[in-house]
Amino acid sequence: MKELKEKILTEGVAIGTQIVKVDNFLNHKLDVAFLDRVGKEFHRRFADCEINKILTVEASGIAVACMAAGHFGYPPVVYAKKAVPSTMTEGFYEAEARSFTKGTVSMFRVSEKFLGPEDKILIIDDFMAHGEASHALTQLVKQAGGSVVGIGAVIDKSFQGGSAKLREEGYRVESLAVIDKIEDGTITFV
């Protein structure tokens, strides 16, 4: 997505050789009109798929998933929680995920009442690095007996191998901006 690449280059910041900071439009402050166009692009790329739910993880994926949902006819957006709230009183599915950016391990959880065997899920992720978050979300869908029809990543740092790993597992992955490398403060796209 050309507009996304331009936005990364003009508003993003490369930190070291591994991190891209895009808090001006995606992770801290949201450019809602732009994110609507991101959602539209996900719809274009997955228009051939039957989808009845979109799955993401709190917090950064929620806005993108909601914007995409509008273009898919407003299927429910379900998001995995990283902590068990006191309101999650029924059973839940859970899977472990490492956060590359935060250097932490989280347990993703979704209530059993929100995922089931009838579900055809599109996973939306803001960043794809090592693929840990998306992989954990696929595990939640498997536990529920549903099917993953695709995985959409807004920004894919392909040099970290996550999207390749998920493709090797048989998943369709569509990334809107694919970064080849980050070097000397310069971001290079594939």
TrEMBL record:
The family database entries (CDD domains) matched by this protein are listed as: PRTases_typeI (cd06223)
Q: In which pathway does it act?
A: Purine metabolism; XMP biosynthesis via salvage pathway; XMP from xanthine: step 1/1
Q: What are the subcellular locations of this protein? A: Cytoplasm
Quote the InterPro entries the UniProt record gives.
Answer: PRTase-like (IPR029057), PRTase_dom (IPR000836), Pur/Pyrimidine_PRTase (IPR050118), Xanthine_PRibTrfase (IPR010079)
Ordered alphabetically, the record's keywords are: Cytoplasm, Glycosyltransferase, Purine salvage, Transferase
**In the Enzyme Commission scheme, what number(s) does this protein have?**
2.4.2.22
Q: Per UniProt, what is one GO molecular function of this protein?
A: xanthine phosphoribosyltransferase activity
Q: Which family does it belong to?
A: Belongs to the purine/pyrimidine phosphoribosyltransferase family. Xpt subfamily.
| Name by which UniProt lists this protein | Xanthine phosphoribosyltransferase
List the source organism.
Answer: Lentihominibacter faecis
